[in-house]
Amino acid sequence: MAVPVQKTDNVTALPSPKASAKPAEIVALPARKSEGRGRKIMGRLKGFAATTVPPLLVLGVLLLVWQIGFARPGASLPAPSVIWAEAKDLILDPFFVLGPQDIGLGLRVLTSLERVAVGFGLAAVVGVMLGALVGQSIWATRGLDPIFQVLRTVPPLAWLPISLAAFRDANPSAIFVIFITAIWPIIINTAVGIRNIPQDYRNVAEVLRLNTFEFFFKIMVPSAAPYIFTGLRIGIGLSWLAIVAAEMLTGGVGIGFFIWDAWNSSKLSDIIVALLYIGVVGFALDRLVAAIGNLVTRGTSAS
Amino acid sequence: MHAYLKLDHIDKSFVRAGQTTEVLKDISLTIDQGEFISIIGHSGCGKSTLLNLIAGLTQVTAGAVLLENREVNAPGPERAVVFQNHSLLPWLTVYENVKLAVDKVFSGRKSRAERHDWILANLDLVQMGHARDKRPSEISGGMKQRVGIARALAMEPKILLLDEPFGALDALTRAHLQDSVMDIHARLKNTMIMITHDVDEAVLLSDRIVMMTNGPAARIGEVLAVDLPRPRKRLDLVSDSRYIAAREAVLRFLYERHRLVEAA
Question: Which in A22, A123, B47, B223 has the greatest CB count within 10 A?
Answer without folding.
Answer: A123
